[in-house]
């Protein structure tokens, strides 16, 4: 094998650059050439290849986002789009492709595998919703960003007797809320996987007040909106819904902070850079061994490869013990 390619696809995640660097430098170490594909599958179809060498990935290990840009491509979902992508890859002499992204990107990558191009997926998504890996690149950085915000909200919260409702990303997955809630000492964490009753939330807040808590932080994953049955629009921000409900029910003053895209940005944490470096290196080794159609992930600190077909069959399990622990520690 002489040439491999790498692309980033789907939502960007801090640490993608560290993964690109690891792919390029591991390939360089083994004397392979690397092409970078700009804008994910869109760039594959439109022949947006650039040459990468160990120097082109200097000074990116600490940067958020992705130097290769990311995109979503409707065209790639069509057989014509996929055929064009395969044609371009073959013409460029690419014998193996590393796809850094989420579940959707891996489903797209499987179409290339079926066409005979070995692909290896690297899980990178802040939601941490990909099975067969304990963590995805970007998740740790996002949790740290949310915790930093909670710390700041606590500073102002200590000056006022209020309920602070903070909304974080996670349309289908409560991972960010659960980890950040435990690390940030939130009084209540609402996640899509648990159908919490808002009346119970109010009771918890009232009992905290009786225990002498001057303020409380309620962390809400954006996806919990689907759990509410109070007849409001599901598109309405989950946090505003919770804040209104709590105010009406308890009489406590509430304040809302919706974090939005700041959760995607920032310098990757050391954990994300280490994970990205290990997965990037292993992905290249896998291609050199002639193994494709797999995703590399971390399972109990070991780097493991799993066939993508297996990944697609599974659901990422959430350890609800974390959620319970956050509530136990906040209840005292
Ligand atoms: P994130 O978790 O951040 O959303 P993702 O990788 O899951 O990342 P998607 O938008 O789901 O992001 O997928 C990225 C791209 O992968 C899509 O724009 C599309 O081009 C391609 N893709 C997704 N699913 C398929 C599929 N079933 N067949 C072909 N291509 C697909």
Helix content: 40-55%
- Tell me the overall shape: elongated
**How many alpha or pi helices?**
11
Tell me which ligands are bound: adenosine-5'-triphosphate
Radius of gyration, in Å, reads: 22 Å
Largest sheet: 7 strands, mixed
Q: Termini distance?
A: 60 Å
Oligomer: single chain
What's the CATH topology name of the largest domain?
Rossmann fold
Description of the molecule:
Helix content is 41%, strand content 18%. With 332 residues, it is α/β, with parallel strands linked by helices. It has two domains: 3-138 and 268-313, Rossmann fold, CATH 3.40.50.450; 142-264, Rossmann fold, CATH 3.40.50.460. Strands 3-2-1-4-5-10-11 form a seven-stranded mixed sheet, sandwiched between helices. Helix 7 (198-210) links the parallel strand 7 and strand 8. Bound molecules: adenosine-5'-triphosphate. Adenosine-5'-triphosphate binds next to helix 4.
Task: Summarize the helices and strands and which ones pair or pack.
Elements: E1 3-8, H1 16-29, E2 33-37, H2 40-45, E3 49-52, H3 79-91, E4 96-101, H4 103-114, E5 118-123, H5 139-157, E6 163-168, H6 175-184, E7 188-190, H7 198-210, E8 216-221, H8 238-250, E9 254-258, H9 270-288, E10 294-299, E11 302-307, H10 308-313, H11 320-330
Parallel strand pairs: 1-2, 1-4, 4-5, 5-10, 6-8, 6-9, 7-8
Antiparallel strand pairs: 2-3, 10-11
Helix pairs in contact: 1-9, 5-6, 6-11, 7-8
The structure holds adenosine-5'-triphosphate (ATP).
Adenosine-5'-triphosphate is lined by residues 9-11, 41, 72-73, 76-77, 101-105, 107-108, 111, 125.
């Amino acid at each position: 094998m002489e040439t491999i390619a790498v692309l980033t696809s789907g939502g960007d995640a801090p640490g993608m650059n560290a993964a690109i660097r690891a792919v390029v430098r591991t390939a360089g170490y083994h004397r392979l050439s690397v092409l970078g594909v700009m804008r994910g599958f869109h760039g594959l179809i439109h022949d947006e290849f650039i040459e990468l060498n160990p120097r082109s990935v200097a000074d990116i290990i600490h940067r958020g986002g992705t130097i290769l840009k990311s995109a979503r491509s409707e065209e790639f979902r069509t057989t014509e789009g996929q055929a064009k992508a395969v044609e371009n890859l073959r013409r460029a002499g690419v014998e193996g492709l590393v796809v850094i992204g989420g579940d959707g990107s891996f489903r797209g990558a499987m179409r290339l595998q079926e066409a005979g191009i070995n692909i290896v997926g690297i899980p990178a998504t802040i939601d941490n919703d990909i099975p067969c890996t304990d963590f995805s690149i970007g998740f740790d950085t996002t949790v740290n960003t949310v915790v930093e915000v909670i710390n700041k909200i606590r500073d102002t919260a200590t000056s006022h007797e209020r309920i602070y409702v903070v909304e974080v990303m996670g349309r289908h997955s409560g991972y960010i809320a659960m980890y950040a809630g435990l690390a940030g000492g939130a009084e209540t964490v609402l996640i899509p996987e648990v159908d919490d009753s808002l009346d119970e939330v109010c009771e918890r807040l009232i009992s905290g007040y009786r225990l002498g808590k001057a303020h409380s932080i309620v962390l809400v994953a954006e996806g919990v909106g689907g759990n509410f049955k109070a007849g409001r629009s599901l598109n309405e921000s989950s946090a505003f819904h919770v804040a209104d409900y709590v105010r009406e029910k308890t009489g406590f003053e509430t304040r809302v902070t919706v974090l939005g895209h700041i959760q995607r940005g920032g310098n990757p944490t050391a954990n994300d850079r280490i994970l990205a470096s290990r997965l990037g290196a292993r992905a290249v080794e896998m291609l050199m061994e002639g193994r494709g159609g797999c995703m590399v992930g971390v399972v109990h600190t070991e780097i493991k490869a799993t066939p993508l077909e297996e990944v697609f069959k599974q659901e990422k399990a959430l350890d609800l013990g974390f959620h319970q622990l956050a509530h136990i520690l906040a209840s005292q």
